[in-house]
Write a structure and sequence with these properties.
Elements: H1 2-30, H2 38-41, H3 43-51, H4 54-57, H5 66-71, H6 88-92, H7 98-101, E1 106-107, E2 112-113, H8 173-177
Length: about 210
């Protein structure tokens, strides 16, 4: 009896070991070179959609456009400056910014919707975003910005346009491209599809685009 039980036990252990080795092999073979957190944490898009109320996913107040969007930035891709007064309590606790910019919403004092940040996990907001302290430059400069990326670039007519900017800190597409505070020219009507990068892929253009020979 003991020999039979021992044999059954060994068979069970062997079967479990084979299952574990098979699972490891399948896992390694399915994604051999893809690191953890690939695609700039694309899971954020799904989480954002689930956490955002329907009222914040639809409609557009029409107050933000590309001119005002780039007007808050030193150059395309730089962190925008803070365009409003900062409550004194926020100076010591900058993460309070997330109370408005975490999920968006209408701010009666400013008569506008708060833009949603695509990176709410970065709570040290003042590390990158600062208010304007003066209207005039304190020193002369010959600074010239670069042209913003062109919109609507597609490889074929009617195909989904490419993403004209890097994804770092901007991997949460829905935060900027949907909702009342979205920039009018880049607002989408199909945010509920969830996986934006299933159709849209980054295409970073650093040189002037030459016309294709016809």
């Amino acid at each position: 009896m003991k020999k039979a039980e021992t044999k059954i036990g060994r068979l069970g252990i062997g079967f479990a070991a084979i299952c574990l080795l098979g699972a490891a092999a399948l896992s390694a073979g399915a994604a051999p070179d893809i690191p953890h957190g690939f695609d700039w944490d694309g899971e954020k898009i799904f989480n954002r959609y689930n956490e955002t109320p329907l009222s914040a996913m639809t409609g557009n107040d029409g107050t933000r456009n590309l001119n005002s969007f780039y007007g808050l930035r030193q150059y395309p891709g730089s962190p925008p400056r803070i365009p409003h007064a900062i409550p004194p309590a926020f100076a010591d606790e900058p993460y309070n910014c997330i109370s408005c910019h975490g999920r968006g919403g209408y701010v009666a004092e400013l008569q506008a919707y708060a833009p949603v940040t695509p990176h709410p996990e970065n709570e040290a907001c003042f590390q990158c975003h600062v208010p304007r302290r003066a209207e005039e430059l304190f020193v002369e400069t010959d600074w010239q910005s670069i042209n913003p990326p062109a919109l609507g670039r597609s490889q074929l007519g009617g195909s989904p346009p490419t993403i004209p900017h890097p994804l770092q800190l901007r991997e949460d597409c829905i935060a900027c491209h949907a909702g009342p505070a979205a920039v009018a020219e880049i607002r989408v009507e199909h945010a509920s599809r969830g996986n934006c990068r299933q159709c849209h892929v980054p295409l970073i253009v650093t040189e002037p685009v030459k016309e294709f020979a016809r």
